[in-house]
């Protein structure tokens, strides 16, 4: 036969165990939905200006890995320019990172003849591509929020209507 205090002990134990499971479940759910942070990197644009990921915090950022030899990159570039022009005044920054195999003179020529309005950076040793998760395919575009969290990674040309919605929401936040 159980002592009179046993049901209370069992109830208290059940409540504590239930709370512990709830907390652990919440932490597990949060870990599944936590967004990765932008790597701690420094970009150097074609003018020699350096921009660190820390300096870019507080802005919505697109980082687009591309190559002059990539037909999809070249095809999407006018839409990327339109996207930049549409959202830059609202706080969007954009860095086009040329892949390590792209000859710098090709990149410079492309950026100048197309009058690209955003920063274009070289990645001669491939360190930026490596820091962003071994980027191998072009185009690969990252959308990063004001806190430095990666919101989306696009491999290939993005759906621009989806991209614009994502940017609008990130810029409002």
Automatic annotation (TrEMBL):
It comes from the Bacteria. Residues 32-172 form the Thioredoxin domain. One of its GO terms (molecular function) is oxidoreductase activity. PROSITE patterns: THIOREDOXIN_2. InterPro entries: Redoxin, Thioredoxin-like_sf, Thioredoxin_domain, Thioredoxin_ResA/DsbE_sf. This is TlpA family protein disulfide reductase. It comes from Undibacterium oligocarboniphilum.
């Amino acid at each position: 036969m159980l002592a009179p205090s046993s049901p209370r002990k069992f109830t208290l134990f059940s409540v504590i165990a239930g709370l512990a499971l709830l907390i652990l479940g919440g932490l597990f759910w949060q870990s599944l939905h936590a967004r990765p942070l932008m790597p701690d990197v420094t970009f150097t644009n074609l003018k020699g200006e350096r921009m660190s990921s820390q300096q870019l915090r507080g802005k919505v950022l697109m980082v687009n890995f591309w190559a002059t030899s990539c037909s999809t990159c070249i095809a999407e570039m006018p839409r990327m320019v339109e996207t930049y022009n549409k959202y830059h005044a609202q706080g969007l920054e954009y860095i086009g990172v040329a892949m390590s195999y792209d000859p710098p003179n090709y990149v410079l020529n492309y950026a100048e003849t197309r009058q690209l309005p955003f920063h274009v950076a070289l990645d001669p040793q491939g360190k930026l591509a490596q820091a962003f998760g071994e980027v191998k395919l072009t185009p690969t575009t990252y959308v990063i929020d004001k806190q430095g969290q990666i919101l989306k990674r696009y491999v290939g040309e993005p759906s621009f209507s989806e991209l614009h919605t994502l940017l609008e929401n990130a810029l409002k936040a």
